[in-house]
Design a protein that fits this description.
With about 130 residues, the chain is an alpha/beta fold. The chain is built from 5 helices and 5 strands, in the order βαβαβαβαβα. Pfam families: Response_reg (PF00072).
């Protein structure tokens, strides 16, 4: 399925380079072209302000801050940006907490192309 461009650009915020590269490969194969990446909150802030991503894939555990704090920041300052939380700790509490804070999706690591495709298709239905 071809995706609609309003989801772009897409920003990936994850401190693990291999995770960012893997997600970029998946998104590229799904037809996305404008994909940005950041390894921490400090480098993500200017990208959020200048590029205004439609979607942010956000790791919950980052070295400079907790992903849920970034989620709250994005929701407060960029209300049109959809945040998909990513974590290796997919406990029910973790998932519920991110939904309550306004995340539009949650992907457990390790993820695959099908999971990414599914969460993005769900986002298209609400945009």
């Amino acid at each position: 399925m071809e995706f609609v461009k309003p989801l772009e650009p897409i920003l990936i915020v994850d401190d693990v380079k291999e995770i960012r590269e893997y997600l970029i490969d998946i998104l590229t194969n799904l037809g996305f072209e404008e994909i940005l990446e950041s390894n921490d909150f400090d480098s993500a802030k200017p990208l959020l302000a200048s590029k205004k991503p439609g979607v942010v894939f956000l790791d919950i555990e980052l070295p400079d801050t907790d992903g849920t704090q970034i989620l709250e920041f994005v929701n407060d300052n960029h209300p049109n940006t959809h945040v998909i939380m990513c974590s290796g700790h997919n406990s029910l509490e973790n998932v519920q907490n991110t939904w309550e804070l306004g995340a539009k999706g949650f992907i457990a690591k390790p993820f695959n192309a099908k999971k990414v495709d599914t969460v993005l298709k769900r986002l298209e239905l609400i945009t």
